[in-house]
Every structure is written in C-alpha cells, then in structure tokens.
Write a structure and sequence with these properties.
Layout: H1 12-42, H2 54-71, E1 75-83, H3 86-92, H4 94-111, E2 117-122, E3 125-131, H5 135-150, E4 154-156, E5 159-161, E6 164-171, H6 178-195, E7 199-200
Parallel strand pairs: 6-7
Antiparallel strand pairs: 1-3, 1-6, 2-3, 4-5
Helix pairs in contact: 3-4, 4-5
Length: 201
C-alpha cells in the first residue's frame, strides 16, 4: 500500500510573521548599506574643516588625470601652505588655530568655482584642483587665493588673527600620476616661499 505524503501549508498567521521577518531583515540590510556608504564618504572628509582630506583629494586628482588623458581638458593643481600659522597656535592655542583653518577653508571654497575641488592635504596645507584653465590663469588664481587668505581675519577677543599663504602651481598632463603632480606643485610652492612670487611647476 502506497503511503501518501501530506503537504503542510503554513497558516495565515505564520505566513504573515515570515513576511514581516523578511521585511525587517531587508530594512536592516538597507540601513547597514547606507551606514557603510556614509562611513566610506566620511573617510574622505576632514572632520574639522568639512572639506576633502588628502585621501579624498588624491582620489579626485586620480579621476582628473584620467579625464585629462581621455579628453585633453586642461587642469591645474594649486598647492597652498599657510605662512605664520605656527605663531597663532603658539600664542593663542590650538582652538584659535582651528578657527583660522576653518576660516581659510571657507574663504577658499568661496573663491573657486563649484566644479573645482578644495582639500586639506595635512596640517596647514591645502590643495585646489582647477578645471579648464591655462597656466597663466592658474597662476593668477593662485595669486588671488593668496590674497584672499591674507585678507581672512578671525577675532580672538580683541586680537585679529590672520595668516599668509604661499602657492605653487602644477599643470596636469596625460602622463602624470597623482604623486608626481603633488610633488611638482609642492616644489613650486617652496620656490614661491623663497622667491616671494607664485611659481608654476
């Protein structure tokens, strides 16, 4: 005699519970993915200044070089190093120094186009990526940024705090890698410090 296999169907309540559990797990997975994406994005941002950090800047520079290689669009990197920033920290404390850095970052962002990139490369050093610029235009923008930073004032009680800046420029070329461009701009910045003028590298 053949035995019959009986199929047991879940009742309506069990099916509802299973559906709710699947929805809960899907929601948790979506939340975890969103949190991971947020953490990855925050890893590229300077927590004090809310602009890109060096990691984020190098990613953007790598992307820019790929674009230059493919389309030949002119672009330039400005490397900025603040002058007389250490005395601000020494005399007024790091909190005052942080306020100066924030003011400088805001001034830089207001002075460049929305398509350009501003980042803190470390300490009191900043990088700016410019699109669709010639060498002369990039140098002129570097001079402007120096002037803007010099005109940025933060009040510490009754004491006005300000710093200067030295800027070096490097044009992006199709054969470059990020480290080479940064190195050229950094070297041009030191030439600027010694010679007292914006230098292109």
């Amino acid at each position: 005699m053949k035995s019959k296999v009986q199929l047991v169907r879940p009742d309506a309540e069990a099916a509802t519970q299973l559906s709710a559990e699947v929805e809960r797990l899907q929601a948790e997975l979506a939340a975890a993915r969103a949190k991971l994406a947020e953490l990855e994005a925050r890893a590229d941002v300077d927590p004090l200044l809310e602009i890109l950090n060096r990691r984020g800047f190098e990613r953007e520079l790598h992307r820019s070089l790929a674009y230059v290689r493919r389309y030949g669009t002119p672009a330039a990197l400005i490397y900025l190093d603040l002058d007389c920033f250490k005395p601000v920290n020494d005399r007024h404390g790091h909190a005052a120094g942080d306020r100066v850095l924030k003011a400088v970052a805001s001034s830089l962002q207001r002075t460049v186009r929305g398509s350009d990139v501003v980042a803190r490369l470390g300490g009191d050093e900043f990088g700016v990526l410019l699109w669709n610029v010639s060498e002369s235009q990039a140098v002129a923008k570097a001079r402007e940024l120096e002037s803007v930073i010099a005109a940025t004032v933060v009040m510490q009680g009754n004491a006005p705090l300000s710093v200067g800046a030295s800027a070096g420029v490097a044009l992006l070329s199709s054969g470059d890698v990020p480290a080479e461009v940064i190195s050229r701009a950094d070297l041009a910045m030191y030439v600027r410090k010694r010679a007292g003028r914006v230098a292109a590298g």
